[in-house]
């Protein structure tokens, strides 16, 4: 059964707050970031990586397809598949190497923008974050979802209710 949480983020400060909560609760796995251009996928990712402790710039991997990070020893890969022409390109760039990192002692966090362009090669999501920009009110509507309720999800849900109630 799909578990979902819906939020309205009125400004960038709220996006940063959400990223901080996500950073506290989701340390590894596959996260799909879904939304139209300008919906805030890269902004959320940037804030998430900074909340995890990344001190430098966070650039969009629109042309490189992936930007790797190691934060406190944790491997994190930010994928942006917007310019991907064919999912087979992921095989050519060695996506299996990133996925095989899952066999290591520290499981990676994969943040994947435009995951639908990488189907069927991209791994199944543990979490999905759908972002929608309401241009009239300049707010972002966020729907977080997971297929399986877990202790991580319950703790995330509780924290989000505390922070955004």
**N- to C-terminal separation?**
24 Å
Total of DSSP H or I helical runs spanning 4+ residues: 5
Roughly what fraction of the amino acids lie in strands? 25-35%
User: Structural class per helix/strand content?
Assistant: alpha/beta
Subcellular location: Cytoplasm
Family: Belongs to the TsaE family.
Protein name: tRNA threonylcarbamoyladenosine biosynthesis protein TsaE
InterPro entries: P-loop_NTPase, T6A_TsaE
How does this structure look, described?
The chain has 165 residues and is of the alpha/beta class. It has a single domain (3-164), classed as 3-Layer(aba) Sandwich (Rossmann fold). The chain contains 5 helices and 7 strands; from the N terminus they run βαβαββααβββα. The chain has helices at 12-25, 41-52, 88-92, 95-100, 151-164; strands spanning 3-9, 29-34, 66-71, 74-80, 109-113, 127-134, 139-146. Strands 1-7-6-2-5-4-3 form a 7-stranded mixed beta sheet, with helices on one face. Helix 1 crosses helix 2 and helix 1 (12-25) packs antiparallel against helix 5 (151-164). The radius of gyration is 15 Å and the shape is globular. The relative contact order is 0.25.
């Amino acid at each position: 059964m799909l578990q979902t949480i819906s939020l309205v983020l009125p400004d960038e400060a709220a996006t940063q707050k959400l990223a901080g909560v996500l950073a506290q609760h989701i340390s590894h796995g596959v996260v799909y970031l879904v939304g139209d251009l300008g919906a805030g996928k890269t902004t959320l990712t940037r804030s998430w990586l900074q909340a995890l402790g990344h001190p430098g710039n966070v650039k969009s991997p629109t042309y490189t397809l992936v930007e790797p990070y190691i934060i406190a020893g944790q491997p994190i890969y930010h994928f942006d598949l917007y310019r991907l022409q064919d999912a087979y390109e992921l095989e050519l760039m060695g996506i299996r190497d990133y996925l095989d990192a899952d066999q290591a002692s520290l499981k990676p966090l994969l943040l994947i923008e435009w995951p639908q362009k990488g189907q069927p090669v991209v791994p199944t999501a543990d979490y999905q974050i759908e972002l929608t920009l309401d241009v009239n009110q300049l707010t972002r509507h966020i729907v977080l979802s997971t297929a399986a309720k877990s202790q991580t999800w319950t703790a995330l849900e509780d924290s989000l209710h505390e922070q955004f109630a």
